Amino acid sequence: MRLPRNHPRRLRLALYRRMASLVKVCGVVCISLLLCTCSGGQPGSSASAQGHGVLVIAVDALRADHMGIFGYDRNTTPVMDELCAGAVAFEDTWSAAPSLLPAHCALLTGSDPNVSRRLFLLESEVADESRFEIKDQTPHAAVTFLSAGYRTAAFVDHAKLNPVLGFGSGFQEYSPIGKVNPGTGLAGSDVGLAGTSRRLLDWARGLDRDQDWFSYLQVSDLERVWNHSDPAADGYFEPRPGMSNVPPISNDAEAFFAQPRSRWTGGAVSLGQYEARYDGRLHRLDQELGALFEDLRRAGLWENTTICIVGSFGVQFGEAGLILDHGLYSSADLRVPLIIRPSTGNEFDSGHTSTNLASTEDVIPTLLELSGIPEPPGMVGVSQVPSLVAGGKPSRTFAFASCGYQEGGLVVGPQYALEQVSPGQTLGVHGPGLTRGWFGDEEEHPTAMRERFYDRRLYPLPNYRLQDEFLERTVPDDEKKLLKEAAIDRYFYSGMARRVLHGPKWRREETVEPSVIDKLVELEFLSGKP
Q1: Percentage of residues in the chain with pLDDT exceeding 70?
Q2: Does residue 162 share a domain with residue 32?
Q3: Does the pLDDT value for residue 47 go beyond 90?
Q4: Do residue 470 and residue 350 come from a single domain?
C-alpha cells in the first residue's frame, strides 16, 4: 500500500536518502550535518514535510447536466472536464436542498438541513436569511478539521451566509463578500470566484509549509447571471433555435410558471438567450477555475491538496415550474456535480466516473476519511470513499432533499423517486404569492398534498403536465413501499431533531419523548443528548 506523503516513515526514508547523497558529494561536512540532524537539530526547509490541504469549492446554481463530463453538448467546462481525467466524478449526486442557506448548511455539517432550520409560529412571515442557524450541538466541518490541528478559513460570496448564524463556526478566518456596486451587482476582483480565489491564495501562501489546512470557497457567479450583463461571456454561445419563447414576467420576487421580477433586467429575452447566457458564464467560471489551479501549482499547494468541486444546488429554465430560479424538487434544482481529486498518497481510480448514488451531505464525511480524521457524531451523510475506485459498493440507498419553496421533500433511489409536497404551505416571506401562483386563486390551501412516484431513469424531469397517476404506474409496489418508509423515517426524525435543537426547553420536554431523543442520537440526527 502506498504511504501518504506526510507519513512519518516515508518522511524518514526520504530524509535518509537525501543525507546519503549529500555524504557522497560533500564528505565530512555532510556527515556533520547528519549527526546534527540525528541529535535533535531542526531539518532544513527542503526536507520538511508539506502540510495536507483540503479545498471545497461550492458553486451555487451549478447543474450537472450543463457540464461536458456529464454529456452536455456545449463545451462549457473544459477545465473541469480535464480535472476529471485525474479525479473521480460522481454523476448521480443530489443536493440536500434547492435553496442557498439550507444547501450550505447540509454541505458544512454533513447533516439534514432541517436540523439547522429554526422554529417559528408563522414561517411565511420570516425572511430567508433568518430561517436557518447551525447550532453548536450540530457537527461542523471547520470545527472538526480545526480540532485535528488544521488551519481553517472560509471565503464566501453571498451576504446571507452570516457567520453569526453558525456558518462561521470553527473557521479561524471567515472572509465575507466584498462591497458590491449597486448599479452592476459587481465590484471587480472582490466578488465571485475571482475574489474568493484571491483571498484564498493570500491566506494559504501565509501558512507554514508543514501546516495542514481546510478551506471552503462559496461561489455565486452563476446566481448573478440574471442581474447584470457581461457581453463577452453572454455571447459566447448561440441561443438554441428551439427555445425562442419569451417567458412571462411576474410582478412577484418569486413565482411559479413565470420569470420572477427579481431576475428580469428589462426587454424581451427568450429562454434560449437565457440558457446561452448561463452557459457562457459557466464557461467563464470554468476558465477562472483553471487560473486558480495554476496559482495553486505555482504556490506548491496542488499535489498535496484534496480538491472537491460541488454544486450546492441547480437552476431551472422552465422544466418543472420555475424559470431562472430554484426551490422545487426536480433534478434541475437538485442534481449537481461532485468532483473529488484526492491528494497524493490516497488510493483512487483516476478518471473514474461513479454511478453510485451520492448526496451533498456526503461531502464532509468523505473528505474527513480521506484526511484520516474520525467523523464526529451527528452526521447523517456517509463517506463516498468506496466509490473512488471502479466497482466500489454504493454507500447509500436513498438521497433526500427538503427545505425548498414548498413544505415537503424528495426521496431518490437508484431508479425511482418519491416527491411529497404541500403546495399550500409555501415558505418564506413570498409564500402567499407562490401559493397564489400555484393554485391560481386567492384562497388558502393548508391541507393540499401532492404525492407522486416516478421512474427517474425514464422521466428524469417529469413535466408537470404529466398526470401523477400515469407516473405512478412506472414504479413497482414494493419500491413505493420502500420509498414511503424512507420518507417517513427521514422527515419524522429530522423534524424531531429540529424541535430538540431550536425549540424552547419546556416545549421540547412536552413534545419529544426521551426514547425519541435516544433514537435521534442512534440515527446520528443529534450528536448527543441535549
Answers
A1: 86
A2: no
A3: no
A4: no
> What pTM was estimated for this model as a whole?
0.89
Query: What are the residues whose beta carbons fall under 8 Å from the beta carbon of 21, sequence distance 6 or more?
Result: none
Residue 272 located in a structural domain? no
User: Measured between alpha carbons, how far is 255 from 107 in angstroms, rounded to an integer?
Assistant: 27
Within this chain, do residues 184 and 325 fall inside the same structural domain, yes or no? yes
Element (H, E) at 305: strand 305-311
pLDDT-derived band of residue 465, with 50, 70 and 90 as boundaries?
A: low
- The count of C-alpha atoms lying within 13 angstroms of the C-alpha of 24, restricted to the half-sphere facing its C-beta, is 5
Quote the strand ranges of 166-288, DSSP E.
Answer: 173-175, 213-219
Boundary of a domain, candidates 381, 396, 411: 396
Q: Say how far apart CA 452 and CA 89 lie, in whole Å.
A: 30
CA distances for 490 relative to 137, 221, 295, 356, angstroms: 19, 33, 42, 20
Q: Given the C-alpha cell 432541517, which residue does it identify?
A: 114
Domain span holding position 183:
53-225+305-396
Vertex 220: Cα angle to 119 and 354 (nearest 5): 90
Q: Is 55 helix (H, G, I), strand (E, B) or coil?
A: strand
Q: Phi/psi of residue 469, each to 5°?
A: -65, -35
Rounded Cα gap, residues 71 and 355, in angstroms: 14
Q: Is 337 helix (H, G, I), strand (E, B) or coil?
A: strand
Q: What mean pLDDT is predicted for residues 304-316? A: 98
d(CA 433, CA 258): 12
Name the DSSP letter for residue 204: H
Residue written as cell 438521497? 399
Task: Give the largest CA-CA distance in the chain.
Answer: 92
| Least confident stretch, 239-243, 300-304, 379-383, 468-472 | 468-472
Output the pLDDT for position 23: 34
What does the mean pLDDT of the chain come to?
Answer: 87
d(CA 418, CA 396): 16
Which set of grid coordinates corresponds to residue 182?
449597486
pLDDT at 510 over 90: no
| Terminal alpha carbon distance of the chain | 42
